[in-house]
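Example record

The entry below shows one chain as it appears in the dataset: sequence first, then structure tokens.
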Amino acid sequence: MLNIAYCSDKYQYTMGKSFYDCGKKDEVAIFNMFYRKAPENNNWAVVSGTDEVIEMIENLGNMDSSFFEKFLPGEEYAEFRGYLSAMKFTGNVYAMREGEIAFPSEPIIIVEAPLIEAQVLETPMLCIMNHQMAVATKASRVCRATDRPVSEFGSRRAHGPWAATYGAKAAIIAGCSNTSNILTGVMFDYGSTGTMAHSYVTSFGCSVNGEFEAFDTYIKTHKGEPLILLIDTYDTLKCGILNAMRAYRENGIDDSYSNVYGIRLDSGDLAYLSAECRKTLDENGFTDCKIFATNSLDEYLITDLERQGAKIDSYGVGDAIATSKANPCFGNVYKLVQIGGEAVLKRSEDKVKLINPGFQITYRITKNYPDKGDVFKADVTCLRGDGLSVKIENGDTFTICDEYDRYKYKTFEAGSYSVHQLQHQVMKDGVRCVPQHSLSEKKAYYDDTLKHFSPSERRLINPHYYKVDISDDLYNMKMSIINRLVSDINNFSKEK
């Protein structure tokens, strides 16, 4: 069986050998997983995959020494191989909930563990999270383009069965009403949906009468279930819609039908065809007959269809979601921020790659308005237990400043706000310590979270800036480390 915990890069283990030999293996390290920039000019991304990360971590140490010998051969690795085969994760993990909305630089997952245990998690963790967050964030964009239901239909275009299954899960969390993937439905107790293929229609003979027979047979063999007939195999308006209505009528299917019934459009001018089909259906008494549309859709095409007044009741979206087509590579990274109680950071030639050091926690600040209810106003990341963290926890008045423009600030008066932490402990001493939420609960959490951001922050094009800051103590620690590094580098270069 494939053990995802060892879907890793060799260098994670060669570094581990050095840590082991030099006596650093038991030094407690803290790593943050976060991303630097959201795809497609989003302000934010949707979290998905943390349950699979926990499962992956729990599988560490479930491989025999012979497995490690295949890529760490030789007597010099013998002792280390024995260590790896027995190594279980013993640390703590803090993570955002699946369905959470995360902003750049905020820790999505924090790992606090002995150095080797924490280090070897990097590759499989990023593999899981980068895939699912790419899909979830794209699904969120597609679903925000319309108020109508969107189904995930992308399994055949996904990058393998694992990606199809967990990608469908991520898409549902981030707004999709359902998926065609039966494995996802079974694994997560969510159900699955489907209509029919063109091959079903043509299997009854390539003719107008064959199309009718296909529809008639389908209705007879699925009565009581949702019925969606694919009407564009030969000609949507000249025979497809007419055969569909005839088949429904002859089988007693009308607006009194106890389940959903409808037609699917999969080609052509969807705005025009949907309007013509709607007119024809209504004129013939099928006013509750739904129109379902597919055909390489994404958020931009859906937005345009909505602008044109298309008469579409729901959409099916495939590869745009399943592969996060416009931006398939999500940018989560996994960086060491503390070792042996000392904060550390990576300083780079690229300013965007500069990271926040230390053991962190992120608070989401909420204000209540009589007319709008609870509205999220800002996120702020602090060092755990620092001055700002204490003020926030106590409900005191506090001020936050923009990291890159210290003249931009916002004050929250005592009694005017509420807060919640974004990172929750999910593993304690190597053991899962929180219950697992169902897929429906994760989806509901995302839906509720999204509602508390302003409409301008939720828009697809040029979303309004949402305030994301760090505490003064975190900022000062970061600058202190940088200044010390710069001084050290300058002195070093002078000596050379």
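Notes for this example: The chain has 18 helices and 21 strands. The domain at 4-135+328-485 is CATH 3.20.140.10 (nicotinate phosphoribosyltransferase).
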